Amino acid sequence: MGAVGERGLLARIRARVPGPPAGVTIGIGDDAAVLAPAGRTHAVVTVDSLVERIHFDRRWSSPADVGHKALAVNLSDLAAMGASPEWALLSLAMPGDWPVAEFDGVLDGLLALAAAHGVAVIGGNLARTDGPLVVNVTCGGACRPRRVLLRSGGRPGDDLYVSGTLGAAAAGLEMLQAGHDAAGADEAACVARHRRPDPRVRLGVAIGRARAARAAMDLSDGLADAVRQVAEASGTGASIDAAAVPVAPGARRWFASRGEDAVSRTLAGGEDYELLLAVPPKWRGRLRNARRHAAEPGLTRIGTLTKDRALVVRRADGEGPLPDGFEHFRRDG
Ligand SMILES: [Mg+2]
Q1: Which of 4, 54, 92, 304 suits 332 as a labelling partner, its CA being 20 to 30 A distant?
Q2: pTM
Q3: Mean pLDDT, residues 225-245
Q4: Same domain, 142 and 156
């Protein structure tokens, strides 16, 4: 880092970032960015940090993986609001001895995902730290005012759907931690989900535009956590059908090989970055069309929101309470 200096690093970013798109009057290079939102849209804004050793481990995530994930987790939050992403601010706290090649690697991963979703990097900040590497991304998008998806919109009787398959990121992280050779395609998919989650941007935007869900949330901290948050915000309970939870094949086998219940582990495991949706049964056709339009993975109905405020999981052998989700402050660093 030292040899290049802050100006040199900034120049490396500026050289790689395309000019500002429509809606951004001033991008990188001034004291602040200037935005000119299109008429009648609302700005939707979110921020997330990835901290080395807490959220990623450089032993098994490349700098490009870290850059990808730092943006992906923000895009996932915007998708859960039904907002189309537009811009990102990148703030890095970097150890003084951090190799410039790794700085470039973080940019590789972040800028590739940004380009894939038409997101402009419009500014940021570079700081030196004596602590771990911190990659902080703020992301903004646009949404028509009455199309925004909230956690609080659910009603009793709404069906709960999830996109894609779950449990893969938690299983993939454990495979990496255990030094497991994830050679098969299903196992490799788990490891890839941990390293480079694929945010459901097109799906969230399509669902928001079509008003195909009443409530939504992304699965950053696990399915159990998301069900709890949506139910609490909506003033409902929830009933989840354990047999319906779409556990990723590689995760199912991994958890079974550890003698663990795959559904319990999947309910608790975080970082899948799929979407949880609350959808009235009569909106099912709209939901299906939005999903097809977005060309995203399938949706699975996993339960319902209930008038009774209890949060339960139904299994073949009876009903039990919804387990706790993933808790950041309990996680070992
Ligand atoms: Mg979220």
Answers
A1: 92
A2: 0.95
A3: 98
A4: no
Give the model confidence (pLDDT) of 40-72 as tens digits: 899 999 999 999 999 999 999 999 999 999 999
DSSP helix, strand, coil percent of the chain (3-state; round to 5) = 40, 25, 35
Whether residues 163 and 92 share a domain: the answer is no
Domain that holds residue 53: 5-146
Same-domain status, 98 and 172:
no
Question: Could you tell me the two tokens for 149?
Answer: 């998806």
Compute the distance from residue 85 Cα to the ligand 1 centre, in Å: 14
Domain stops at, among 97, 113, 146: 146
CA proximity to 200, closest of 300, 83, 71, 296: 296
Task: Tokens 């696990």: give the residue.
Answer: 222
| Distance in Å, CA 75 to ligand 1 centroid | 9
Exposure b/e, 229-240, CB count within 10 A at least 16 = b? bbbeebebbbbb
What total of structural domains would you count in the chain? 2
Tell me, rounded to whole angstroms, the distance of Cα 193 from its chain centroid: 11
What percent of the chain is modeled with pLDDT above 90?
84
Per-residue confidence (pLDDT) for residue 325, from 0 to 100: 67
